[in-house]
Structures are given as C-alpha cells and as structure tokens.
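Quick one, tokens below:
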C-alpha cells in the first residue's frame, strides 16, 4: 500500500469509528509501526484534517475533514502545482537566513518541518557533523507544504534516508524567512517542542555568521 493510500485508509477508519482509535490499533490495521502512524497523523493534520489526539486515541473531527478522505487516497494528478507553489513561496523581496541546530527522531521529522513552515519559514538545506566523515550536507529547498510532503514520501518509500540517522538525531538546517523577527519566532516554536539544540562553541565558529540576508 502506497503512503497516500495508507493515509486515506487511516482517514476512513477514523471517520467510520464511533470511538477514539489508538495508535496501536491503527498500526495493526494498516500493517505499519506506531512511528509511521504518528508521522501520518502529522501529515494529515498539515493537509487540513482535524485529527485530535485524546487519552484513548485519535478522533477525526468535523464533516469537512471527512469529505477529503477520497481525495487523500488518490495520487495527485500531474500538474504545474509544484511550480506554482514555488512561485508563490519565492518572492523577490530580501530573505533572511539562519543556521539552527536541532535534534529529533525520524518519526518527528514531519512535525519539525511543518513547525518551521507554519511559522512562515523555509528549510533550505540539512547538514550533519560526523566524527569520521566530517561535514555532510544536502540541499532541500522545502518552501511549501507540498515540498515537505514529497520529501517525507521519498524517505518513507526508501528513496532517501535522513542524515540525522548517522548523528543520533543531531543536525543543522539553514532556514529562511522574511525577517529576523520571524526567524526568532521559528526558533521559539522549535524550542517549545524540544527540537532546538544548543550550539557548542566550536560549532558556532565553524558555521560562521549565524544570520544573513539572501
């Protein structure tokens, strides 16, 4: 079952249940791990589905969210939407960027990315500092939710693996936004969720200036 089909099946189960469904029961029904369920719930929330986590499990709230079930189960048709998204997300105005250090699990990757996007930021790249291999980095250019969903699908399908797996979850992102105040807000949001990690003195030196206009 493909990722989009699985998320559609999850929505159908939540819609048809008169009671909360636990992560364990959803994982068993869909043949995946609980970590995958947590990630799928984060992705579905990002798409606009009102899924509430209660002490007894997950609940799908509202009729409007249920109406999206069928669409979520089908792959999006080929279109110019990604280009349109990038056109809207890449204004000509000066952008400000900053390197942040974060730590989280693979299952929390979706929540970390959407936390940045929902606070009006963009994720330009990812890098890690490995004791043997040195600095490893990769360009991401996650400017929209669509970009994030495509990146997460690539990881889940095995097309790529997150760099954080080789450094116990620690990694760096260059994030961009329209102002320093927005970058500050993003850092506060990441810190509130426990994702922001402090820089060591030697890391600050190797990173160079923390903020710049682009």
């Amino acid at each position: 079952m493909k990722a989009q089909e699985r998320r559609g099946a999850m929505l159908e189960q939540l819609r048809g249940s008169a009671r909360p469904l636990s992560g364990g029961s959803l994982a068993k029904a869909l043949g995946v791990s609980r970590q995958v369920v947590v990630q799928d719930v984060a992705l579905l929330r990002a798409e606009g589905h009102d899924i509430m986590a209660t002490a007894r499990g997950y609940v799908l709230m509202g009729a409007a969210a249920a109406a999206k079930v069928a669409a979520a189960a089908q792959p999006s048709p080929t279109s110019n939407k990604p280009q349109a998204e990038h056109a809207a997300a890449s204004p000509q105005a000066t952008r400000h960027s900053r390197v942040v250090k974060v730590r989280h699990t693979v299952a929390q990757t979706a929540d970390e990315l959407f936390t940045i996007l929902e606070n009006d930021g963009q994720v330009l790249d990812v890098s890690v500092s490995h004791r043997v291999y040195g600095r490893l980095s990769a360009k991401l250019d996650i400017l929209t939710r669509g970009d994030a969903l495509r990146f997460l699908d690539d990881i889940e399908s095995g097309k790529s693996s997150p760099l954080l797996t080789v450094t116990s979850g620690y990694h760096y992102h260059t994030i961009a936004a329209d102002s320093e105040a927005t970058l500050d807000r993003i850092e506060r949001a990441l810190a509130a969720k426990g994702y922001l990690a402090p820089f060591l003195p030697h890391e600050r030196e190797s990173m160079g200036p923390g903020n710049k206009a682009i």
